Amino acid sequence: MAQTEKKGGLLRKSSASKKPLKEKVVLMYDEIFTTEDPSKTNPRFWEELFLMKVNLDYLEGKLEALDGEELMKIKDNINCLFQHCIQALGEEHPIRVVNALQTLCALIRGVHQKNKSTSGFDIINMLVGFDKAELCMKNLMESLDSLLCAEGSESLKSLCLKLLLCLVTVTDNISQNTILEYVMINSIFEAILQILSSPLSRREHGYDAVVLLALLVNYRKYEVVNPYIVKLSIVDDEATLNGMGLVIAQALSEYNRQYKDKEEEHQSGFFSALTNMVGSMFIADADEKISVQTNEAILLALYEAVHLNRNFITVLAQSHPEMGLMTTPTSPIPTTPVTPLGTTPPSSDVISSAELPLDADVQTSNLLITFLKYSSIVMQDTKDEHRLHSGKLCLIILTCIAEDQYANAFLHDDNMNFRVNLHRMPMRHRKKAADKNLPCRPLVCAVLDLMVEFIVTHMMKEFPMDLYVRCIQIVHKLLCYQKKCRVRLHYTWRELWSALINLLKFLMSNETVLLAKHNIFTLALMVVNLFNMFITYGDTFLPTPSSYDELYYEIIRMHQNFDNLYSMVLRLSTNAGQWKEPASKVTHALVNIRAIINHFNPKIESYAAVNHISQLSEDQVLEVVRSNYDTLTLKLQDGLDQYERYSEQHKEAAFFKELVRSISINVRKNLAFNTLSQELLLKEFSTIS
Predict the structure, then answer these.
(1) Do the bridges between strand 417-418 and strand 364-365 make them parallel or antiparallel, or are there none, so unpaired?
(2) Most exposed: 102, 402, 467, 605, by fewest CB within 10 Å?
(3) Each residue of 343-380: pLDDT tens digit?
C-alpha cells in the first residue's frame, strides 16, 4: 500500500503520479481567500471550519503571500473569519475553542507580517474592520478573561495567554500597537492576578502571565494613564505578590542553574586541563565561552514590581528553599528549546514555600539572593549588548531597593543572615574563593560584595561609565541609610576602599582615552565623596574605632594616588577648557583627604626617624594615627548624606523603550516557533461529546 505523505497542506500518494490532494481545511482556507462569501455555497461553512484541525503554516503563509491590494479585496472575508473565531470562543465544545484560538493567532501574525511598516490602525481594520472593532474586541477580551478565570482546561488557558502575548507583541514598539487600547479598556489584570495567586495555575502559566503583565505595564506608560500600572501599584494581596515573586525567582534560578552546569562542564573539560597545565594565562578566554541567554523579560517584570509596588519589597525577603536544590516533580515536564532573551518559560515547576516543606539540610534562600546571584553572572561580561542591558537593569533594580526604607531594614537586619555565593570573574591575580568558606552575613554585605566585584573587574578600554556611576550611587545610598539609622555593619570595608582607590588610579592612568568619551570627573567626585562620607560620618556607622583607624591608614598608605588625582584636577581646573568646572569640584572635594595626608605623613616620618625604622609596620602607623587625631583639623562638608532619588520617566525612558522593544520582538519570535504546537492541545480534547 502506498505511503501517504503530508506537506504544506497537501496530501499525496508517494507512488502515484496524480495531482496532490489538498486536505479539507486547506480547501476551506482557499475559499476564504476569494472575494466570495464562503457561507453562500455552504451555510454550515463556519461551523465546519472550527471542527477542522488548524493548519497554521498554510494560513499564515497564504496571508503573507498576498500583496496589499489582494489583501484588501478579501478584507470582508478576513473580518468575517475573525468575528466567527470570537463567536466560537463561546462554544461549549473545547475543540472549537482551541481551533478558534489557534486561528486567531495565525490571523494576527499573518496580517502583522503583511503590515510590518504600517500602524496598528491598519492591522485593526484588516482584522476586524473599524466599524465593528470596539464590539468585537470587547467580546474577544471578555471571552479570554472568562477562559482564564474558569476552572476548565489548562491547555485552553495556556493558549489564551499565548494569544494575548501574540496580540501585545504584534508591533515591535508596543506603544504603537493600537490593538492594545482595547486591552486597556477591557482589562484582564484580575485574571492575571488569579493565575499568580493559585499554585496550580501559577505552575502551568505563571511565566507567561508575568511576562504579559510586564509588557502591558509598558504600553504608552509615559504618555497616558495606563490602568495596569495603576492596578499593579496598589496590589496588596500576599498570595498574589508571593506568587509573582516565586515565578520570577524560579526563572532566575533556572538561569543560575544553567550557568552553573555549563561552568562545571567547562571546568571538567579538556580545555580546563590544558589551562591547569600551562597556567592561568588563558582563564579569561576560557570563561568567555560560558554563555547562557539572559532573561530581560523576567528581569523587567521584577523591576516593575519593585518600582511600582511598595508591598512587593516584602516578597524579596520571603524565605523559600534554594530552588536549585529542590526535588524535581515526578510528572514529566515537556522541555522547550532555549530562545533568545530567555522568553521561553523555565522547564521546572514553581513551588511555593507552602507547597514544599523546608528541609533542615537545604539552604534557605529568597528572591533577593537569587537575583543577586543572577546579577553577579550577567554583570561579568558587559561587552555583549544583551548582557549590558541586563547588567544595567540589575543595577537599576538595586538602586530602587537601596532607596527603600523597608528594604534597607531587612538588608541590614542582623537576624537575617545568609550565605550568598556570588559568581566571581576568573582573574589571573586572584584565586577562586571556595564556596564553603563563605560566612553567613546580613544581605547588604552581598550587595556590597557585588558592587566591589563590579568595580574591580570592569576597568577596561571600553569603560562602562554609566554602570560605574550606578554602582557608586548604590553604595552611597546604602551608606546614607547606615549613617541615618546608625547601623554598624561588620563588613570588610578595606576591600571597598581598595577597589575605590584602584578605580581612581585607573581613571588617572587612562585620562586621555577616557576623557575623549566620558566626563570622568563626575565619577571621580562620587568616589572622593564616598571617602568624605567615611571620614565625616564613619564614627557613626563603622563597626569599631579600629575600623575608622584603618580608613586613615588606607588613605595614608595610598596617598600617592590622591596626590596624583589632585595634581590632575588642579591642572585642568586652572585651564579654561571644558573640564574646568567639573575638575574644580573634585579639587574642593579633596580638601579633607589632603588634610589627613598632610597632617599624618610628617608625623609618620618623624616617628620613623626618632625610632630609626626605615619602614613602619601597619600597627606602628596606626599607633601614630591614634595619637595624633586631636591635632587634625577637618572641614565640615555639606550634603554628603543627600542624594537624588531614582526617576524613570526623566532619565531612563529611552533605555526602557529600547529594552521593551527588544523583549517584544523576542517574545513574538518565541511564540512563532515553538509554543503553538497543536498536538498536545488536541490530545486533551480527543473526543467531542
Answers:
(1) unpaired
(2) 605
(3) 444 443 333 333 333 333 345 789 999 999 999 999 98
8-state DSSP, 352? -
Are 174 and 215 in contact by the 8 Å Cβ rule? The answer is yes
193-211 average pLDDT score: 94
Strand spans (E) along 49-149: none
Higher-confidence residue of 134 and 687: namely: 134
Indicate the pTM of the whole model. Answer: 0.87
Q: What angle do CA 85, 131, 664 make, to 5 degrees?
A: 60
Q: In terms of C-beta density within 10 A (0-12 exposed, 13-18 middle, 19 or more buried), how is residue 14 classed?
A: exposed
Are 397 and 372 within 8 A, CB to CB?
no
| Domain edges within the chain | 24-186+658-688, 492-648
Site of grid cell 484582564: 188
Helices 618-627 and 545-557: crossing angle, nearest 10°?
110
Decide if 457 contacts 429 (C-beta within 8 A).
no
CA atoms within a 13 Å half-sphere pointing along the CA-CB vector of 433 = 13
468 contacts 458 by C-beta, under 8 angstroms: yes
List the CATH code of the domain at 24-186+658-688: 1.25.10
Write the pLDDT tens digit of every residue in 135-151. 999 999 999 999 999 88
pLDDT band at 323 (very low <50, low <70, confident <90, very high): low
